[in-house]
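note to self — DONT lose this again. spent like an hour looking for the file last time. sequence + predicted structure for the chain T wanted, 315 res
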Amino acid sequence: MILNRTKAVKTAILLLIISVSFIYTGCRRRNVEKRQLISFKSLNGIDYTEVYRRMKNGLSFNEYGYQLEPQWKLKFISDDSVNIYSPVKNKFLNFPLSRGYDSIFNAARAWFKVKKMNKDSLVFEILKSQNDSLDVSGAKVFMTFYANDYIKNTLRSDSTILRRPNRKDTLFIKKLAAKANSNPAKAFAAREPAQFIPKSPLASIEVRRTKPDMMNNFDTSDDYLDPEYYITIKKAYQDFYYSFTIIVDYKGGIQYGKPLVAFQDPSLAQPYIHTSQAVMNSYVSYYFNVVPGTTLGIPHTSIVSVHVKGIAGNK
């Protein structure tokens, strides 16, 4: 009797598990059927230009002076390809388009989530990816595109005007500049980096220029976030080479920052700092006029990296 009851209970449990499995499988199939791959078919052939790139707070600048510049132009060709403008080659290049669920897609080696999409405008959120993982919560950076026809015939404007930073950006930079100018520790990257203009034929300077290409996604932001200058001084007292940072204040004055070399022996740091600071105070100060960096036309304290090479005698 007990055996029969146990067998009946086991049978009932098995039937319950099977029933639940069928229900779960059916629901899962229906959910998959509802989730369709994102499609850009209705937008094919429309030329779009990016007009804003902003953070969630509406600003295009962050506290480090980094500007989120609207740079893209694109046109969807099909559901598996998109044309994106290359400023280097001065033409549109075709990129594969990988589509996913939940409005997520990949193009030009970057991941995006569609927040808005119609024939007049697009809004994409940039997604953060690392190795094989993708953070679908987003980087809270948004790209806004307008159709070229919408810009011209509805807004009666052009992308150059629309891409300008707004009043909120200007007020934000003024506050940052006021802090940096009163405290060098608050220095931030200048959108137009400080300039070192030679005033002697014995001095020359080369500014690092990043070549935009596929490998860096045409991103040259390091040129203003961390500007580097290679300075050569002829007829120096001896051959030397020193790398260090310089704090350039809002009036063009310069102040020694820190060495850009690692010291395995800490006792070597102070002599290096002492001599490289002397190089700055003598050669750099004497041979160059310095123009402060600016952001939105506002002069402010910023930091640059310099590599100073001295060539002795008549070499």
